[in-house]
């Protein structure tokens, strides 16, 4: 799924420039993914894999927040 999302992101004609635009783009990309492969991946997840996925997703969100905060601090000076 991540590979499919990355591929769709790379095909965007206009890249998002803000966190809000990134969120909107990812929501559109997610909404356009075919449901069959998503169902298959969900069924194959074990509890351990799910915990690892959640940890990875939290890490990505934390990095985006840090990056966003640094951009705000940089633009204030």
Overview of the molecule:
The protein has 77 residues and is an all-alpha fold. The chain has a domain of 40 residues. 81% of the residues lie in helices and 0% in strands. It is built from 4 helices and no strands. It is flat.
Q: Secondary structure elements and their pairing?
A:
Layout: H1 2-10, H2 19-32, H3 35-44, H4 47-75
Short description:
The chain has 77 residues and is mostly helical. Helices cover 81% and strands 0% of the residues. It has a domain at 38-77.
Question: What brief labels describe this structure?
Answer:
0% strand, single chain, mainly alpha, 4 helices, flat, 81% helix
Instruction: Tell me the span between the first and last alpha carbons.
Output: 40 Å
Structural class: mainly alpha
Write down the overall mean pLDDT. Answer: 78
Which regions have little confidence, pLDDT < 50, spanning 5+ residues?
A: none
Question: What's the number of extended β-strand segments?
Answer: 0
Largest sheet: none
What characteristic shape results from the CA principal axes?
flat
Oligomerization:
single chain
Radius of gyration: 15 Å
Tell me the helix content: over 70%
Tally the helices: 4
Residues in β-strands, percent: under 5%
Run of helices and strands? HHHH
């Amino acid at each position: 799924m991540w590979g499919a999302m990355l591929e769709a992101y790379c095909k965007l004609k206009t890249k998002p420039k803000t966190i809000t635009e990134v969120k909107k783009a990812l929501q559109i990309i997610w909404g356009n993914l075919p449901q069959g492969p998503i169902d298959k991946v969900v069924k194959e997840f074990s509890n351990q894999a799910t915990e690892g996925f959640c940890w990875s997703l939290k890490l990505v969100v934390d990095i985006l927040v840090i990056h966003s905060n640094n951009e705000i601090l940089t633009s204030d000076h």
